[in-house]
Every structure is written in structure tokens, then in C-alpha cells.
Write a structure and sequence with these properties.
- The chain has 300 residues and is α/β, with parallel strands linked by helices.
- The protein folds into two domains: 163 residues, Rossmann fold (3-Layer(aba) Sandwich); 129 residues, Rossmann fold (3-Layer(aba) Sandwich), CATH 3.40.50.
- The protein is built from 13 helices and ten strands.
- It has a four-stranded parallel beta sheet with strand order 3-2-5-6, sandwiched between helices. Strands 8-7-9-10 form a four-stranded parallel beta sheet.
- The longest helix is centred in the last third of the chain and has 18 residues.
- The N terminus is likely disordered.
């Protein structure tokens, strides 16, 4: 998979030694654990697990920014350098973190990579792991464990908060189950694999060539054959909904949306990062899966 993230300013970490003199990240002067998450999705999960004992900074948090064109900065490097815990996605999705965490071992910082936690690997793997909602419980448990190692005095709080987080995912899973019960095997289309895990968990199938979203994800133009097949799937109403990434839109995406609307195929917008107005990760995902269910009901 081609990496579409970029690091605009690679700052030698030796130049940042003024940010902390310990062999380990210094955290905050108020005693809270300093945590850096690659995106606000993981940042929100850390906040829920860590509660008042953590200070979380999310490198990427603006839903109006195309994540694939994000450029890191010297400020990011300084923040990561001082963190005690770092949470990233892996699978090349947030590759801008690679340079930022290059000194983690020598600094004795703890790095949690969601892909490693979930055992997902390979060049063909869908990197949008946070859309596999049930499995985020395992990520939350890992965060609780690592926070408990860093701050043993509050380990019980972290475990309790992680359990609360896991329970709060149940409404999302309930809606996905309702979709499986009523529309198992229904075909949908998407411009990118952003919500791929959620759609699979809901029992839905891809009704267009897989090469189309893969090409888009890699920053390439889909093949003419895949594009024609996508168009026909919409025109003939062979798919029940079109899911698109509202953070990454272009002329082709707008054309597909227009074709879907003309053919009576409902649209479902999803985002890669959590919108600022969302109260939590689970609230965001619940809203999106409800919109998916409504689209399927409309096209039934």
C-alpha cells in the first residue's frame, strides 16, 4: 500500500533534548500522564480509559483536513518526545509517527500500535482498524494495562474505565446485529475502505470491483473497467447504498454521488477522524451505523 501521509518537518530529536532531561518522558507537572495519539479517534479512547489521570494530545484532530495529505511538524515532534505513552494505528496509516517515535526505545516510552494489538498485518490489510468497533475493546484493555504499568496507583481506575468503554460499545453492536438480521449479504458500494470493517461486521458485501476503492486508497486512478462496473452497479441499483469518505472528495466522488442519487441509491457519509461535535468515539460510530441502517431501509 502506498503511503499518502507526509512529514513536512523532520526534526532531529537530539535537538529537542530541552523538552525533557529524563531517560523517560516527563509527563506533566500536575502529575498526569502525558499521552500522544496519532489521531483523535485513539485520543478519545485514551481519554475515556485514562480519565483525569491523563493529558492527551491528538496529532490529527481536524475532520476538515484530508488525513492523506497531513504533514507533521516540529511541534508534534516535541510533544511526542515528552510523552510517556504513545498510541498509533500502524499498517502505514499514520506513518508520520515513525519519525516522531524513533527514539521511543531509548527514551523508555511506551508505544501502543493498534495493528499489533489486534494482530493485523500484511500489505493488503485494511488500515482503518477503528471501524472494527467490537475489537476496540481490546485496544482499550491494552491502554488500561499500559497506563497501569506507568501509574500503578490508579491501575484499578484504568481497568474499570476500560470495562465501561467496552460496555458502551454494545449499542453500536446492537445496530449492526439488526442489520445482519434483516439485510445479511446485502450489497453496497464504497469509494474507499474506510468503513470496511464495520460493513463486514454488519454482514454486508461489496457489490463493486474491489480494485476501485483500493486504487483510490493508494492514490491511483481506478481502471476503466472497474469504473464502468461501479457506474453500472449504481445505474442498475445493484447496490443498496453508496458509502463515501466525506473527508476526501474529488470530482470522481462527486460524480458517483450524483449517479447514486439519480438512481435512487442512498448515500452514507463517513469520516476517517472523529468530528469535533461528536461526544465520544462510540457516539460517533453509533450515529454512522444508524445512518447506514436508515439507508438500507430506504433502499429495501
Amino acid at each position: 500500500m502506498k503511503l499518502r501521509w507526509a512529514v513536512a518537518a523532520v526534526v532531529p530529536l537530539v535537538a529537542l533534548t530541552g523538552c525533557g532531561s529524563d531517560a523517560k518522558g516527563t509527563g506533566n507537572s500536575d502529575g498526569r500522564i502525558g499521552v500522544v495519539a496519532s489521531t483523535n479517534v485513539y485520543g478519545d479512547i485514551v481519554k475515556q480509559v485514562g480519565g483525569s489521570h491523563v493529558q492527551v494530545t491528538s496529532v490529527l484532530s481536524d475532520p476538515n483536513v484530508d488525513p492523506h495529505g497531513y504533514e507533521s511538524s516540529a511541534k508534534n515532534a516535541a510533544t511526542v518526545y515528552d510523552a510517556e505513552l504513545i498510541v498509533e494505528n500502524g499498517l502505514g496509516y499514520d506513518s508520520f509517527m515513525d519519525e516522531l517515535t524513533s527514539s521511543a526505545d531509548s527514551r523508555k516510552q511506551t508505544v501502543i500500535t493498534a495493528a499489533k494489538v489486534l494482530g493485523v498485518s500484511g500489505d493488503d490489510a485494511n488500515p482503518h482498524l477503528w471501524y472494527d468497533v467490537p475489537k476496540m475493546a481490546k485496544v482499550a484493555d491494552t491502554i488500561a494495562k499500559k497506563l497501569g504499568t506507568i501509574d500503578a496507583s490508579h491501575a484499578a481506575d484504568y481497568r474499570k474505565n476500560a470495562a465501561k468503554f467496552t460496555k458502551s460499545l454494545q449499542p453500536v453492536e446492537k445496530v449492526m446485529q439488526s442489520i445482519r438480521t434483516k439485510d445479511d449479504g446485502a450489497k453496497i458500494a464504497y469509494t474507499e475502505r474506510v468503513a470496511g470493517y464495520l460493513l463486514a461486521d454488519a454482514g454486508l458485501q461489496l457489490g463493486i470491483p474491489a480494485g476501485f476503492p483500493r486504487a483510490v486508497e493508494e492514490g491511483d486512478d481506478p481502471s476503466p473497467g472497474d469504473t464502468v462496473a461501479f457506474d453500472k452497479a449504481l445505474q442498475k441499483h445493484a447496490v443498496r447504498a453508496l458509502i463515501y469518505n466525506s473527508q476526501v472528495t474529488d470530482k470522481q466522488t462527486e460524480q458517483l454521488k450524483h449517479q447514486a442519487t439519480s438512481a435512487g441509491v442512498p448515500l452514507v457519509a463517513v469520516t476517517e477522524t472523529m468530528p469535533k461535535k461528536s461526544s465520544s468515539y462510540q457516539a460517533w460510530q453509533l450515529k454512522q451505523v444508524k445512518q447506514l441502517r436508515a439507508a438500507l431501509e430506504k433502499s429495501a
